[in-house]
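Late entry, written up from scratch paper. The run itself happened at the end of the previous shift, but nothing got recorded in the book at the time, so transcribing now.
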Amino acid sequence: MQIIKATTDHLPQLAILFDAYRQHYEQAPDTEGAKAYLSERLSRSESVVYLAEDAGQIIGFTQLYPVFSSIGMKKAWILNDLFVHPDHRRKGAARALITASRILGENTDARYIMLQTQITNGQARALYEDTGFKRDEEFYYYYLSI
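Output as recorded:
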């Protein structure tokens, strides 16, 4: 297995996996929409996507979006998506994708990498905590749906 940075050349396989990720969160299947969305993010350099590839097959991905910290006056990253195909879990792909994310943060002199996960997702929470993420106990997060 290797971790590589995604390009638009990876879109056919990546879109299928991204669509499976969205379906995991109860979204309607839409491979073409997933492909268009990812194409736009990658071609505009609006996100960084890392792929876990095994024997030429994309088995997992993570997508990070840049944001900025006014207080720290630095770039920061939101690790927005992390998904490994169920048939390929427990092989170290998620951990390797997190490592690639950490390296991105270090290489861009970022202040932090932030993520969120469902409270009920115990496996993901354990992985994040094991890889150095700390649960925020200082701030509440609010959302305004548009």
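The domain at 2-130 is CATH 3.40.630.30 (Aminopeptidase).
(Scratch paper discarded after transcription.)
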